[in-house]
C-alpha cells in the first residue's frame, strides 16, 4: 500500500487520507514553529494554544494592569505636587501681604497719631544704650 502524502501521526497512530484531525500546530515538519509564524498564520488564537499558555497570558495581563496603575499613580503624584506648590505660593503671598500691612500700621508717624488721643507724646531724647562690662574684660 502506498503512503499518502497527507499522512499524519497523532498519539503514535498512523492516519491516512482525508482525516479530520490536523497536525499539531507546535510542530511543523518536525521543527518547532516560532511565535512570529504562529501570529502570522493565526494559530495563536486556537483553543489549544490559548489553554496551554493561559498562565503566561494571565501574567502579561497582570503586568499590563500594573503598568496602567503605575501611570495613574504617577499622574496623581504630579497633581498632588502641583496642588501643594499652588498652596505654598498662595500662603507665601498671604504672608507677604500680612507683613506689609503690619509694617504700614506700625510706622512711627502712625503710632504718634494714635497716641495723641491718649495725650502721650513722642520722646525727644535719643535712645541710650546701657552696656555692662563683664568682669573678665
Describe the fold and architecture.
- With 137 residues, the protein is mainly alpha-helical.
- The chain folds into two domains: 52 residues, no CATH class; 66 residues.
- The protein is 54% helix and 7% strand.
- The protein is built from four helices and four strands; from the N terminus they run ββββαααα.
- The strands form two sheets. It has a two-stranded antiparallel ribbon with strand order 1-2. A two-stranded antiparallel ribbon has the order 3-4.
- The chain is rod-shaped and about 105 Å long.
- The N and C termini lie far apart (128 Å).
- The N terminus is likely disordered.
Strand/helix succession: EEEEHHHH
Total beta strand runs: 4
Report how far the terminal alpha carbons are from each other. Answer: 128 Å
Average pLDDT number: 78
Describe the largest sheet: 2 strands, antiparallel
Proportion of strand residues: 5-15%
Major sheet: arrangement of strands: 1-2
Instruction: Please bin the fraction of helical residues.
Output: 40-55%
Alpha-beta content class: mainly alpha
Q: What integer value in Å does the Rg equal?
A: 44 Å
Shape verdict: rod-shaped
Instruction: List segments where confidence is low: pLDDT < 50 over at least 5 consecutive residues.
Output: 1-5
